[in-house]
Amino acid sequence: MANRNWYNLTMDPNEKPSPDEPVAYDTKGQPLYLHPQQSAESANANNPIDAFKVADSTEPEKPIISQETKLKHDRSSQMYSDLNLSDNEYVINAVNRHPIGLFMPFLIGIFLVFVSSIVMANSDSIAGSIKLFENSSLFMIKIPAIVFIAIVVFVTYVAYYIYSNNKFFLTNESVIQKIQTGLFSKNEQTVSLIDIEDASYTQNGIMQQFFNYGSIRLSIQGEETTYRFSYAANPKQCIATITNAIKAFKNDQPDKDND
Predict the structure, then answer these.
(1) What pLDDT is recorded for position 102?
(2) Closest by alpha carbon to 238, among 209, 218, 253, 223?
(3) Around Cβ 3, how many Cβ atoms within 10 Å?
(4) What percent helix, strand, coil does the chain show, rounded to 5?
(5) Which candidate in 8, 185, 197, 232 could, as Cys together with 221 as Cys, close a disulfide (CB 3.0–4.6 Å)?
């Protein structure tokens, strides 16, 4: 018969050993129990309710989206398909730049096209006055004038494209600013409403007051960066809408002190 390398404890034969107390020790001094202790994993396996609670606590809870919010989200996704909106996010206000900013580019473009057209209409007389060869006005005046007009129209369109593609969106969760700095150069900035510390606007001069446009300014908590959007139409109303959205969003957030 094989020898067992364990030693019995001295106890009363009529006394039933407790399952939590060792009944013997092996040669290395490790306790031996009458019934082996269950590990946490085996205990959870034997108790499916506790196992479900442990597994469920690690999964993030999905927010409940109301039908009204879903409809607003779907409408915003259709109207502004280039925006990356979350499942319960929708656009409250889309701020466009005031058309006054295009006045000077358009005025200069129209003036240059007008002058070039006059030169083309009087190309024959101009060519005769400077004693060019006969029929030379086509190549010396008309064609260069046409090329010049095409360049002016293209440059004016580029100015319009860049100006109009600078946009500012306010959602129920964040502020999204699309910045177009060149024909093939653009970037996007997104700031959560909870991070906005201050929102203000400025209107400088009679022109801005009369045509009701100005600059929007947003300050972010913990950052020295200030976000600006110039030539914003009706900036006072925009800031009022942003302020109300910030208050509503922060009031919907859970109180961290109570967590």
Answers:
(1) 93
(2) 218
(3) 5
(4) 45, 25, 30
(5) 197
Retrieve residue 253's tokens.
Answer: 């957030």
Q: How far is CA 27 from CA 4, 5, 42, 99, 224, in A?
A: 9, 6, 28, 92, 69
Pull the structure tokens for residue 203: 């209107």
Note the pLDDT of residue 122: 79
φ, ψ dihedrals at 101, nearest 5°: -70, -20
In the CATH scheme, what is the code of domain 90-97+166-252? Answer: 2.30.29.30
Asked whether the CA dihedral 130, 131, 133, 134 is positive or negative, the reply is: positive
Give the pLDDT score at 139: 65
**Residue 90's CB: how many other CB atoms inside 10 A?**
22
pTM of the complete model beyond 0.70: no
Give the pair of three-digit tokens for residue 164: 């109009």
108 to 97, 230, 234: CA distances (angstroms): 20, 21, 26
Please say whether the beta carbons of 160 and 102 come within 8 A.
Answer: yes
Report the pLDDT value the prediction gives residue 64, as an integer from 0 to 100: 73
Q: State the pLDDT at residue 90.
A: 93
pLDDT recorded at residue 119 = 84
Pairwise CA distance, residues 48 & 215, whole Å: 60
Boundaries of every domain in the chain: 6-56, 90-97+166-252, 102-163
pLDDT at 67: 86
CB 127 within 8 A of CB 136: yes
How many secondary structure helices (H) and strands (E) does the chain include?
Answer: 9, 10
Secondary structure class of 61 (helix, strand, coil): coil
